[in-house]
Specification:
single chain, about 425 residues, alpha/beta, nine-stranded mixed β-sheet, eight-stranded parallel barrel, 12 helices, about 30% helix, elongated, binds pyridoxal-5'-phosphate
Length: about 425
């Protein structure tokens, strides 16, 4: 079940008029649908059926505290990728036991925070990092729970810039070194090896690589068992993709079957770290048209007040997002390039889109922006961070208010 936003009617979401939000909060503004978040979370949960599993929502996709709280209310846990995300989790009410801590370059302070607070597991990225965790834990006279992140050497088939599972990528411990390192981990006084972790990339729309990577870690878990090392679980990471353009994407059910199918022989519980799949389709970025200009060849630029500072994915990865006029007029469709106001030629949300020519002041919704929208926003060109709105029970609330220019400047002397 996808947010009403994605159904074609952009004016109202679960009984709330988007225009009424804009009247009070202005543009650009991120709007999320809580009912859709609940539906998607449950759908993913159900896809794993009775097989023991935990959902650790990847905060990196959207770490606004109000969203994290919503996930917690559903029984979810989190995957944090920095000390800042651990702080978000804590503010949202998650206990350390609800947190897996991932990240390719954890600072000494972040490692100490994770060990001291006793997170469920630190997903460790290298032998050196394991040594540093061991030292911190021994100094604190505790045992740190660690999962060893495996780089399985699997081509994920997604965009190269969000692919993480090949040996040339910086992530994890190459699979051929993993058995030896795991055997070393269990001998360390400060370490408790609880799991194996793998994550081969984001926006995965082919389940074959997911199966392959899961099988690689399952095989390693069996090898560890055969040498007397027992694990608590396997963490297969996140990455399940969504359809941005209407082409088919795998269902939660197919994903669940794939992962469980690959892991079940180990009998180990599964952790998943979904971000995009849960939150992506539940949000839109609403922006106002600030200029319309002809390119002189029948094609137009539609300049909107959100840019790559509010949604960087198109500029960064060439990603596609549907763009809809909140109130389409009945003029003939024309070819438009929908662009932002940022001083970069790459600040394009959609090229060659066929749409009725909008007027200045009209509202557009940039769809499926719940994930990696606000979370990747910046102050580039000194855009204050937009407000974020959560629609729930036919009403709406501000879960992050718009940053003011004064707040943006407050740290500078
Ligand atoms: C380790 C890890 N887990 C989970 C995720 C979440 O991925 P997604 O939002 O594609 O589900 C990411 C993002 O790339 C990640 O790096």
């Amino acid at each position: 079940m996808v947010a009403e936003f994605s159904s074609g009617s952009m004016t109202v979401c679960n009984g709330v008029s988007i225009e009424s939000i804009v009247r009070e909060e202005g543009t650009p503004v991120y709007v999320y649908d809580a009912a859709a978040v609940r539906d998607r979370y449950r759908e993913l949960d159900i896809a794993f059926g009775d097989y023991p599993h935990r959902i650790h929502y990847a905060l990196k996709a959207n770490s606004t505290v109000g969203i994290a709280r919503l996930i917690r209310s559903l029984g979810g846990r989190v995957d944090a990728n920095s000390g800042g995300e651990i702080a978000v989790a804590t503010k949202a009410g998650f206990a350390p036991d609800d947190i897996v801590f991932t990240g390719v370059g954890k600072s000494p302070a972040e490692l100490e925070l994770a060990v001291r607070s006793g997170v469920f597991a630190i997903n460790a990225e290298s032998r050196g990092e394991l040594e540093r965790i061991d030292k911190i834990a021994r100094d604190l006279r505790v045992k740190a729970r660690v999962a060893v992140r495996i780089n399985p050497g699997v081509e994920s088939g997604t965009h190269p810039q969000i692919s993480t599972g090949q040996l040339s990528h910086k992530f994890g411990i190459p699979v051929h070194q993993a058995l030896e390192i795991c055997r070393w981990v269990v001998l360390q006084e400060g370490l408790n090896l609880v799991g194996l972790h793998v994550h081969i990339g984001s926006q995965l729309v082919d389940l074959e690589p997911v199966k392959n990577a899961s099988e690689v870690v399952a095989a390693l878990a069996r090898d560890l068992t055969s040498v007397g090392v027992d694990l608590e679980y396997i963490d297969v990471g996140g990455g399940l993709g969504i359809s941005y353009d209407g082409t088919a994407a795998p269902s939660a059910t197919a994903y669940g079957e794939t992962v469980v199918g690959a892991i079940q022989e180990t009998r180990l519980p599964i952790i998943i770290e979904p971000g995009r799949w849960i939150i992506g389709p539940t949000g839109v970025l609403v922006s106002a048209v600030v200029d319309v200009k002809s390119q002189g060849n029948g094609r137009y630029f539609v300049v909107v007040d959100a840019g790559m500072s509010e949604l960087i994915r198109p500029a960064l990865y060439g990603s596609f997002h549907r763009i809809e006029l909140l109130k389409p007029n009945d003029t003939p469709l024309v070819t438009c390039d929908v662009v932002g106001p940022i001083c970069e030629t790459s600040d394009v949300f959609g090229a060659k889109r066929m749409m009725p020519l909008p007027n200045v002041g009209d509202l557009v919704a940039i769809c499926d922006t719940g994930a990696y929208g606000s979370a990747m926003a910046s102050n580039y060109n000194r855009h204050p961070l937009p407000a974020e709105i959560l629609i729930d029970n036919s009403t709406w609330s501000v879960i992050r208010r718009r940053q003011t220019i004064d707040e943006m400047l407050a740290q500078e002397s």
